[in-house]
Specification:
This protein is α/β, with parallel strands linked by helices. The protein is built from 11 helices and 4 strands. About 40% of the residues lie in helices and about 5% in strands.
Length: about 300
Amino acid sequence: LLTIFLYNKVYINSKIYNNLGDKKLINIWSSTQQFQIRGFIYPFIYSSRNINIAPPNNYNKETTKNYLKTLNNYNIPNDKKINIISIMLEAYNDFSVFEGVKFNVDIYKNYNAVKEEAISGNIISNVFGGGTINTERSYLTGFYLFPNLRSKTNSFVWYFKSQGYYTEAMHPIYGWFYNRRNVNLNLGFDNYDFYENKYCAVYDIQFNSLNDVDFFEYIIKGYEDNKRRKQPYFNFTVTYQNHGPYSPIEQDNEYLKNNNNIDKETYNMLNMYFSGIYNTDIALGNLINYLGPIMRDIRH
C-alpha cells in the first residue's frame, strides 16, 4: 500500500519531478539531460506513466481491422511520379489577412505569387506557441496521437520510399532535439541533415541560426544531387529562422506600419519578427525562380 501511495502521489507527480535537479548544468530542452540531473531510478519510474497509450474514444480494434482490409495501396504510375519539396516554415503566418495590420513593404509578395499560381488553402495547426514536432509528425504520418516512434513506424515517407522515391529531411538545428535524428529514420527517410552532421560546418548555432536565404540553397542542392540517382525526390524541410525570442532593438526598416497604439519596445519586437518574414519571402522567391523554369518545362 505504501508503494502504491508513493507511486501515485510522489514518483509520477510532475510538480515534484520538475522541481528536482540542477538545471543550470544542462540544456533544459534536452530530455536526456533532464534525466541525467535526476539520476537513473527516479526518471525511469516517472517515465513509466507513458508506457501505455490510451486508445481514442469509441475505438474498436476489430472494426478498425475490418476497415483497413477495405483499403488498397495504390501504386503511382511512373509518368506521375513528380518530385515533392515540402517546407514547414518556423513561426510563419500571413498577418496581412487581419484587419488593422498594415505593412510599409509587401512582405508576402512571393508567398502570394505561389498561392495565385498553385492550388492553395488553409489548415488548422494542432499546436500554438510550442510543440512544433507534433505538427511535423502529424504531417508525415497522419497520426494525431503518436506511438513511441522508436522503431519503424508507418508514414507517408515509407509510402513514397516504396514507390521508388529518395526521401530526405533537413533542419538546421540539433538532431537530438525531439530525437529527430533517430525518429526521422524510423519514419522512412533515407537521409536526415541536421546541425551536428551537416550545418555546423557553415555556422555557429550559439551566435546565429542559418537564415532561410542560405538554407534554401541546400534544398536546391538536394534536388540537384538527386538527379544522379535517377529517382523521384521527396524532401521535407523544417526551417528555424523567425523562431523567438524577438529583440526589442530597433530595426533598419519599418516593415509594420506603426499606428502608435503600442509602445516602442513592443513595436520593435513585432517589427523584428516581420523583418524575418520578409527575408523568408525573399528566400521563397529565390526558390521559385529556380524551380519555375523546371515546372514550366514539365507542364509543356
